[in-house]
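FYI - complex with iron/sulfur cluster, inputs then prediction.
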Amino acid sequence: MITKANGTDNLIINSHEEMINAKAKRKKDGSLAKERGMNKEAVIERVRKMTALMKELLANVHNLHVDLMEGNEKTGENCRTVSLIPGFDCVNCSHCLGECYDVRNVCITDTVIYQRAKNSAIHKADPERYWREISEQIKLLMVTELRLNVGGDFTNEDFFYIEKVAKENKSCDILFFTKNYDGLNAFLDKRNGRKPKNMQMIASVWEGMPFDNKWNVPCSHVLHNDGRTTAPEYGSVYCGGNCSACHYFKQGCWTLKKGDNVVFLYH
Ligand code: SF4
């Protein structure tokens, strides 16, 4: 069945076109907002600000600890998140950084900037501690849904740490998107394609970025207002924008299988 993975309303989306039209209908005048990236200088400035703070925090990193953020309007009430610095902590973002949702819309407030810089400093200084503290926080807060790296990406070693966190916390479903395709493939090569059930990995496909999906992992795609997309024409799940609802209704990214695809409207 092809659906919009929303869990919050009854709208069923069956095609790229319907998804674009549904977005237009939500606007009073039925028009679509113009797609806007950010100019290069503005992106660099935002990343620079977070990176400069991260370097300051490194001096006192032993006294800092990782926090899992509460869910927000996009991830939903119950879905905690923990993220790094977009751009600085990404390993493969030359094509997408200028259009990064996280840089444009999330890394704005002092709180978010501090959290990202702090996490990045701990991750840089001691990745083993970074992931151990995430595992401890999951237990302490009894987290059942966690999205990793709404911003930032993983090093090759991180995939093995995530596997460990998933094995230590079987009651917590862990979801992440990555463009570190080489790291993802290297991890799966080492594990012969196997991973813990509660470690849900999705390759974030981006126009113009080659990806050898040798293990056939589920993929995410952007759908542009003009219909341009890397997603296949049929058979995708369409994101409704509430990960907690998807988790509750057992749909969306949480349940994608090998070869499945999820589509996000450009935002
Ligand atoms: S489809 Fe995926 S990203 Fe969209 S709301 Fe559901 S779980 Fe979250």
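Residues 40-58 form the longest helix (19 residues). Residues 5, 239-243, 246, 252-254, 262 surround iron/sulfur cluster (CB under 6 Å).
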